[in-house]
What we know:
Helix content: 40-55%
Distance between the termini: 148 Å
Largest sheet: 9 strands, mixed
Shape: flat
Structural class: alpha/beta
Strand content: 15-25%
Number of helices: 23
Amino acid sequence: MFNSSKISGGQIANAIIIPMVVIVMISVFGIFGLLHWSARLSDETAVESQNKLISGALQLTQNYMVKQQNGVVIWDEAYHRVNQINPDEGWIYNNLMHWLFQNHGFTKSILINRDFDVQYIYAQDHTNRWMTQDLFAELKPAIAKVRARYIISFRRTPSGLYSFVPQSSDARRSIAETGVVSLAGEPYLFSAAAVMPQIQSISRVRFPPTVLVSLVPLRGEKLKEISEMSRLEGFVLSATQTERDGVGRFQLKSPLGEPVGLIAWQTTEPGSQMMRRINPFLALAAFMIAAVVIAVTIFTHQMTKRLAHSEARAVHASRHDALSGLPNRARFHTLLTETLEESAAEGTNTAVVYIDLDHFKDINDTLGHSAGDKVITAVAQRLQRVIPETGIVARISGDEFAMVIRNCEDDVWLEYILDQVQDEIGRPIMIGRRELHASLSMGAAVAPRDGNDPDELLRKADIALYDAKANGRNRRSFFEPNMEHHVQSKDRLSRELRLALKNDELDLAYQPQSDTSAKRIVSVEALARWTKEDGTVISPAQFIPVAEETGLINDLGIWVLNKACAKAHEWPGITVSVNVSPNQFKHPRFVEKVMAILAANNLPPQRLEIEVTESVFAGRNDSVLKALRRLKNLGVKVALDDFGSGYSSLSYLRRFPFDTLKIDRDFVSDMNGNAEAEAILVSIIQLGKALGMTIVAEGIETQEQIRFLQAHDCNRMQGFYISRPLTDTALTKFLDEFHNVSATGFGTDLSYQARALEA
């Protein structure tokens, strides 16, 4: 009975232990089998991802080659030169192919003419033997695509002519194809681009383009660039490569689909690396199931711990800005909501402060984005140091920050804190050896005075920030109800102005300019006027700044220019002056629009004068000067308005030969009885005449001012004494009356009388 029970006990034990061991073993081996499968799958996925990285890096390199070609293939002169019957090979060599080699490293180039024939072959070693029929056959599909895309870019117009309109909306982009070809057994990257004009053209027939093919060897710098972009190691360019573990293969193919080589690299195998780490556990598991169970338990624990850490990092990353480490916009809103709820319960005040770095874009533009990132990091650290311990600092976007300051005693206390913020940020920031000085504009709203809703407080703080920036920057503003009214009024005015432009509800007034004798009107200045349907007159001082801020200035400026040119025919022999905003020059086709308006109104360019202030040159000198020179070459006169009101006017006079110099009205109004003002006025007149410019004095309001300007040979005069701004009808009547009166002696008593010197 005992034996029986013992056997029963052993059987029971075996029945329990053996199945458990078997189950554990099956589970362990099953798990490890799954791990091996997962590792292999992970390795395959990693290799596939690395292939995509190389493909993307190769494509980026080819795209950059296209951009490098743009400088010569999107060029009016190149377009006309290469399409001549007998092209100048020397010009093509120096300005296209050799230029591309010197500046961008294209060692070989081919020019394919419109008949699909090789027109010119270039190589840095001055040989043509590299250009073979096999190479041309490989390039042929890409060249054919470029030619086809170029031809289908022609659109038939109602007149039966063809207009060249590329499908790309960006005029700076070429029509190009890229790829890889084999040259003497070595892979070369190529870019084939159509040589095309910069300006839209019209032709009677569609025709294929001349195509410039530029090649550069994949070895050396290009391969290094692809390696650096993909961040892969062991890059090797080879004709063939035996398949083996740990080595990836990226096949390069020509446009014909033929293999031209391959890129091999040392693959990263995260799955295999992981399995190599746990292989000792696999061996141990074969002999000690219990140890395997413990190892699996430990491993699971570690993975759980890592997962918890990863989750914590992910949560932190979703709530914080990666660059500065500060809370991001979403986290800031959550913290602000919680703070306001606590403040409401405690009956304390909480300030919300919006912060914007002044002229931060200039730092990025001049020193690069890496310097800008360092400035952002430095500002974030300083804000954290200076804000009270209970406060909150967050980075909202680019160069915008926000703060929450708890327990604000009053505005004086808050101003003290903000003073500390400005003083801290005002200290120099060292970027390498360069010393930068940053400044802040701040807008603050205080709860519960300005509300308790987070979004409402943020909106009001933003309005206060706008007020600070509008009043000179590097300052702070506290929200006031009138600020909101101002913002709403400006928004309403912008919407009304947009509608007025759409419905053609604006008018033009014209202020005449007389010649030196004050007997003849030689020019009129066109001025925008706006009278609403209810009779309300909106001053230009109100709607022009709004148009500048909202971008409506482009539409308004074109409307004024078109209207003035259309009316100019009513006053033969008189020049029409139109003010042009700096923002209008930012439009890439501004000059073309001016040309179109002159052509549409059949007005000679010599009868149009463009007035600009020196602020038009700020930040875009080269492009502005180029546009002004193009207008001047067309015959349009260019005037520098408000001369003397800026610090660098002489610099612009030297860099650009203006036709007209308009003296700021402040000099004219100050000259009566002021010897210094008169001396400055005379100096400006003499300076302008020495530079061959026509001199215009604005703000003429007295007869004595006219006499003085006549005595010093000022060319033109403008002001209320001659005439206030008039409607087109009133101007026509004024011109008739003025010339009739002048014919009988108007102005004969306007001779200059020297003022007696004071004792």
